[in-house]
Amino acid sequence: MLQVLRSGQYIGGATTSAFESAFAQATGSPHAIGCNSGTDALVLALRGLGIGPGDEVITCSFSFFATAEAISAVGATPVFVDVEESSYLIDLDQVEAAITPATRALMPVHLFGRPVDMGRVMAIAEAHGLKVIEDCAQATGASWAERPVGSWGDAGCFSFFPTKNLGAAGDGGAVTCRDDALAQRVRELAVHGMPRRYLHTTLGYNSRLDALQAAVLNVKLPYLETWVNRRRAVAETYRQQLCDLPNLHLPEAGPAGHSWNQFVVRVPSCPGGRNSCGGQCSPSLDSADFGLPESCCRDWLKQELQAAGVSTIIYYPIPIHRQPAYAELGYGPGSLPITERLTAGVLSLPIFPELKPAQQQRVVEVLQALAKQPMAA
Question: Do 147 and 250 share a domain, yes or no?
């Protein structure tokens, strides 16, 4: 970073180019174009592929809001299908039924680091003449069938937000692709639609990966494989030591290419109805306001873990299709039942490469102790 500061070249330049080349190699893609964020990566990929007003893009609602927001930002319409309860990933058995004459693309989300079956995705896309944009924001370092995510579809979109497997010291993102022409379009769109200085052939964006962030990523990228393997070891320890706890559903081991950005467990809703667990928690939201299943058992567990010094987070308490911003799409309560059930029960446990064995053991012991006491006060 000091070298970048001394160079005076903070935007573009050799440092950014070096990272783009290294990241392209790491993801098995001929091209990687740095940009401002993972959200911008999605927008740039969609625009680069010519997707816009009147088009539909099929994706899932159990994801961060930016997945759908990017589709809307280019004037297209997100079409949501439900997810698999076992994997949290888009249910590929439901995709073809959602295809209409307006469908232009599929946007599978490699959620929590678990890769979608890209062989099936590409087969569906080929059969219907659709583009594929992979949302890889949480899955840097993941692979399907020993091939990195982001190298399967027409474009892969990555985030370097600090909490990701490969995190910058701020915002950052990248688009990967195989097609030379698409790569050039994305590059131009990221700099105001400018193929050369002061010539603007289309309306683009100001979305560049600055050299300071690229410097951080250049240093960290060689450690990615080691860090992902450490995440896998942490996940396996959780799976071994928590497998016998009642009322705690663990995530599947998943394919070998899972990169475990998050370790997300599930807590069932109250078996006796609203607040039958004793109602001692402060809910993360009023589920009834969003037409969602009751989440008080999960919220109780989160509070008890926090009181014991174990921080957790909920990914995600409100699914995208039930967000007020998408009310006009008409997805009512129960329209995506598995997604809605998941949002009421999911809880992410601590997982990161630097997690010490003693710290993880503390998480396990607290959960084991909580499992022995009834939820009711």
Answer: no
